Amino acid sequence: MTPAPLHGIWKMIRAELSGEPAHPLIVDNTTLEISATHYSVRFGEEIADRGHVVAADATAAEAHPILTLRGLEGPNTGRVISAIYQAKGDLLRICYGLDGTTPDAFVTRADTPRYLVVYRRKSVSA
Predict the structure, then answer these.
(1) Which of 79, 88, 105, 113 has the lowest tally of Cβ within 10 angstroms?
(2) Topology of domain 4-123, per CATH?
């Protein structure tokens, strides 16, 4: 389950993939919805990706709490993606390890399959 402060709809405000900024069209049209057990990513009004999500607190060996996403529909069907996250007020920062490994910092580089996204809360789920 994910902690209640993560539940809601989050609007992408900035993103970079492997060190390159995301195209403004992607940033302007992408939202992430998180509930207790599921996530969905929308591009415009269409669901582009959907699946299960589980959060885990940081351990002594990890500096940041972890999200584990299991894709059920869309381009990530069957994939398990590990990510670290940081929530502060209405901002949520997530760094996804697209190669199945958990990132250890909120950075991307050309030689790593990392996707770093900053979201702003759009609304809170009931």
Answers:
(1) 88
(2) Lipocalin (2.40.128)
